[in-house]
């Protein structure tokens, strides 16, 4: 059992409070993603769970045990860092086995465990290399291997894919998801990339300014975002959000409509605008419009459709899927 | 300006620079070497002529045997002081640099100020002798070792601290999560990565300690405590007219630092510049 429970967790640096009371329950075996803009406190929250960053008040429970004052090594966690943090003077084998050698695990048992992990991660041929002789993806796998070999109750990932190129990143997303299925451990994953959050998570925690904005499955957050912030953060391209006069005519304070829930037509429609820019992605086309009543409006349409810059078109929202927020 | 005139000018400047370096560095060395191979009356002239009679080996033997083999004793003393002082300097310097860099607090900042003031404030000889006499370390090799450590520690800590700043903190954190205690973080993760700067410290400090003249002169008087540079001093008073032996002595005591430099030259530069740019 490795449920992670945070109770009214707070963190201050001097007078500045960066985590303003977080209550969260992460179930056993869940893949939980913390997502939010930079400076929202997601990495700090992860480091507080790891024990690298002391918390100011509140409690942290891992597997039913209060670990609030425990050392990082006593919490049953393992962490993968953004820059991998491999020991440059040690070989891959020594890197993965470092924790075991600190714990004075006999050499044969250590080698056996390292070999088993290396096989899972396909690192066998590289065990005698130093980290500098590995590619980015291989380094990332070594860092993950170092975490697996500790057999932790909870894995913590701090933006582990942000140093990789796009192709490798999508490959590693799949590998991590498969790894989670195979190990069945609880994983907490920090990212600023909402695509990673949507594709990998069982549960997404959206953070903003040191507070939780919303917790839910990816589709819950997509289909019913609780606040305009979540609405704008989840989904790509971003949801169109309108405040002020434009929203009031629609009977709310903030009006939101996703680009994929807009219909563009040459004939009649709710809004009239001019095409400012067209991004052709192949399967889809993203059309940027200037609508005099609203301002800029982004729509996602079928890839087969073409529009000329400056062309006048009509845009209509799907009223069922529009979001109206008050206050 | 054409390419040709540019190369010609570069060539001329190169020759001038080489000539200057030759005059500054090589000429004095040649002067020493030539005079070390002359007979006493010949060397008393102090000129740049070649020896009338080459007496290299005789001079070596005489220099070594003088004062009951004082030179060999001096080699031993200087080596002992250098090795002990360097060992303490490297271990302490790295540890202090690590704590100051990794754990910023009012205490570590105060210690850093103390270390910087150790670099800036000139040492006072007479009070140091009082202190040494008070703790019975005056005229002892142990006292001399501690003094060399004290003089070298400021610069050493500065070098180590700057180098440790280039080691990502995530490495420490990864080790902590792997279950390392603070001393294990230092000895198993950080210290092995300090190799380049450690070589720099060893070479730079060992040459300055080995070649030190004034401090052994003040703090280490006594016939049995002679160090290499002090053998020159003894020679000059004893053989006022025997410059040939004085120069031979210079040649002999220059050899150990020269060997260190020849072998570690590349690593010194690597340690000095590593961390200057991301590599």
Characterization of the model:
The complex is a heterodimer of chains A (327) and B (279). Chain A is an alpha+beta fold and 327 residues long. Chain A folds into two domains: 4-230, P-loop containing nucleotide triphosphate hydrolases (Rossmann fold), CATH 3.40.50.300; 237-325, Beta Barrel (OB fold (Dihydrolipoamide Acetyltransferase, E2P)). Helix content of chain A is 28%, strand content 33%. Chain A has helices at 42-50, 92-102, 107-120, 136-148, 166-183, 194-200, 218-223, 228-233, 244-249; strands at 4-13, 16-26, 31-35, 57-62, 65-66, 77-80, 154-158, 186-191, 203-208, 211-216, 240-243, 254-257, 262-265, 271-280, 284-291, 295-302, 312-317, 323-325. In chain A, the strands form four sheets. Chain A has a six-stranded mixed β-sheet, with helices on both faces. A five-stranded antiparallel β-sheet of chain A has the order 13-17-14-15-16, with no helix packed on it. A four-stranded antiparallel β-sheet of chain A has the order 2-1-4-5, covered by helices on one side. In chain A, a hairpin with a 2-residue loop joins β9 and β10 (211-216). The two termini of chain A are 41 Å apart. Chain B has 279 residues and is mainly α. Chain B has one domain (68-274): Orthogonal Bundle (MetI-like fold). Chain B has helices at residues 3-36, 40-43, 56-102, 106-120, 125-134, 141-164, 169-177, 182-193, 195-210, 214-219, 228-238, 243-273. Chain B is globular, with a radius of gyration of 24 Å. Mean pLDDT of chain B is 86; it is low at 275-279. Chain A binds chain B through residues 50, 52, 71-73, 77-79, 81-83, 85-89, 98-99, 102-103, 146, 150, and chain B through 168, 170-171, 173-180, 184, 188-189, 192-193. Chain B: Part of the ABC transporter complex UgpBAEC involved in sn-glycerol-3-phosphate (G3P) import. Probably responsible for the translocation of the substrate across the membrane. Chain B: It holds the Pfam family BPD_transp_1. Chain B: The chain crosses the membrane at residues 12-34, 74-98, 110-132, 144-164, 185-210, 245-264.
């Amino acid at each position: 059992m490795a449920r992670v429970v945070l109770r009214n967790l707070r963190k201050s640096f001097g007078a500045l409070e960066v985590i303003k009371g977080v209550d969260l329950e992460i179930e056993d075996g869940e893949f939980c993603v913390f997502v939010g803009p930079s400076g929202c406190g997601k990495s700090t929250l992860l480091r507080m769970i790891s024990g690298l960053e002391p918390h100011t008040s509140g409690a942290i429970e891992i597997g039913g045990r209060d670990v609030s004052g425990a050392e990082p090594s006593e919490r049953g966690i393992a962490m993968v860092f953004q820059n991998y943090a491999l020991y440059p003077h040690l070989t891959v084998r020594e890197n993965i086995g470092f924790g075991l050698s600190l714990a004075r695990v006999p050499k044969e048992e250590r080698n056996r465990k390292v070999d088993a992990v290396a096989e899972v991660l396909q690192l066998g041929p590289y065990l005698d290399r130093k980290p500098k002789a590995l590619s980015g993806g291989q380094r990332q796998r070594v860092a993950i291997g170092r975490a697996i070999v500790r057999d932790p109750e909870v894995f913590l990932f701090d933006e582990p894919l942000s140093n990789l190129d796009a192709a490798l990143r999508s490959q590693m997303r799949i590998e991590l998801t498969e790894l989670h299925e195979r190990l069945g451990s609880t994983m907490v994953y920090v990212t600023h990339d909402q695509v990673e959050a949507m594709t990998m998570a069982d549960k997404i925690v959206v953070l903003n300014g040191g507070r939780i904005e919303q917790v839910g499955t990816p589709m819950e957050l997509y289909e019913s975002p609780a606040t305009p912030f979540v609405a704008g953060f989840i989904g790509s391209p971003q949801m169109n959000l309108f405040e002020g006069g434009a929203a009031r005519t629609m009977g709310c304070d903030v009006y939101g409509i996703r680009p994929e829930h807009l219909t563009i037509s040459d004939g009649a429609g709710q809004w009239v605008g001019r095409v400012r820019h067209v991004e052709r992605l192949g399967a889809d086309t993203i059309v940027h419009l200037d609508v005099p009543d609203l301002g800029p409006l982004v729509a996602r349409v079928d890839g087969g459709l073409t529009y000329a810059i400056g062309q006048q078109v009509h845009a209509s929202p799907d009223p069922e899927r529009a979001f109206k927020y008050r206050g | 300006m054409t390419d040709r005139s540019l190369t010609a000018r570069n060539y001329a400047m190169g020759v001038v620079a080489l000539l200057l370096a030759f005059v500054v560095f090589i000429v004095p060395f040649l002067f020493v070497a030539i005079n070390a191979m002359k007979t006493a009356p010949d060397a008393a002239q102090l000129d740049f002529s070649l020896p009338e009679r080459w007496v290299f080996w005789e001079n070596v033997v005489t220099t070594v045997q003088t004062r009951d083999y004082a030179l060999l004793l001096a080699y031993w003393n200087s080596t002992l002081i250098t090795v002990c002082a360097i060992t303490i300097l490297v271990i302490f310097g790295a540890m202090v640099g690590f704590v100051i860099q990794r754990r910023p607090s009012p205490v570590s900042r105060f210690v850093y100020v103390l270390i910087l003031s150790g670099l800036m404030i000139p040492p006072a000889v007479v009070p140091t002798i009082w202190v040494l006499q008070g703790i019975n370390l005056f005229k002892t090799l142990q006292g001399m070792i501690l003094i060399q450590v004290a003089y070298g520690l400021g610069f050493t800590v500065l070098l180590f601290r700057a180098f440790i700043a280039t080691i990502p903190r995530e490495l420490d954190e990864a080790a902590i999560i792997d279950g390392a205690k603070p001393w294990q973080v230092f000895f198993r993760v950080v210290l092995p990565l300090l190799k380049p700067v450690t070589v720099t410290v060893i070479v730079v400090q060992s040459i300055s300690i080995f070649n030190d003249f004034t401090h052994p002169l003040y703090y280490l008087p006594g016939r049995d405590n002679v160090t290499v540079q002090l053998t020159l001093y003894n020679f000059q008073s004893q053989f006022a007219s025997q410059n040939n032996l004085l120069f031979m002595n210079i040649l002999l005591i220059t050899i150990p630092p020269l060997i260190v430099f020849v072998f570690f030259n590349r690593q010194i530069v690597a340690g000095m510049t590593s961390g200057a740019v991301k590599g």
